[in-house]
Amino acid sequence: MHPETLPIGTPAPDFKLPATDGKSYALNDFDAPIFVYIQGCNHCPVVHAYLKRLIRLAEDYQEQGVQFVMVNSNDAERYPHDSFEGMVEFAKQHQLPFPYLHDADQAVASAYRTFRTPEILVFDRQRKLVYHGRIDDNHQEPSKVTSFDLREALDALLAGRAVAIAETPAVGCTVKWRPGNEPVAA
Q1: What pTM, to 2 d.p., does this model score?
Q2: CATH among 3.40.50.2300, 3.40.50.11690, 1.10.357.10, 3.40.30.10 for 31-174
């Protein structure tokens, strides 16, 4: 059994986290009509496989009122590559066009009920969850993608329509929980 995810329609939990750009961000710092939360990290091969697509999506939708944010909640003691210093280097190396936030105590991942990297949550203007899951259906071969789930969700919201498929299975590494922080299965 897997832990229970955040139900569609749930308000976005608030947060205040440090970012690789030297600032701290809270949920209310993002006033774009659509807010995309990415549970990510530095070391996961699936994050790496999707990174160019995520950057492209963020750039494609930025002018349309969509704000992307990536959050790393991995235990940096057991996974030193996911340290804040590693995140700063990762953000520079990949020229991330969105804030990359550090959730050292894992409270935000717990509140957002995210368990995979990458895992996507999309919130509408009222900051209600309208999409949860994957970026698309093929992290290994971009040319063979047949379902552009995140793009379709964003297009629907921007057109004033409901998201047709609100939940898809997130595929990737598990969040690397600190001992004692592991989520309980539903």
Answers
A1: 0.96
A2: 3.40.30.10
Domain extent listing, the chain: 31-174
Tens place of pLDDT per residue across the chain (186 aa)? 457 899 999 999 999 999 999 999 999 999 999 999 999 999 999 999 999 999 999 999 999 999 999 999 999 999 999 999 999 999 999 999 999 999 999 999 999 999 999 999 999 999 999 999 999 999 999 999 999 999 999 999 999 999 999 999 999 999 999 998 888 765
**Residues 186, 175: Cα–Cα separation, whole Å:** 17
Please, what's the b/e burial string for 167-182 (b: 16 or more CB within 10 A of its CB; e: otherwise)?
Answer: ebebbbbebbbeeeee
Q: Answer whether 70's CB lies under 8 Å from 99's CB.
A: yes
Beta strands in the chain (DSSP E): 16-18, 24-26, 34-40, 66-72, 100-102, 116-117, 119-123, 129-133, 173-174
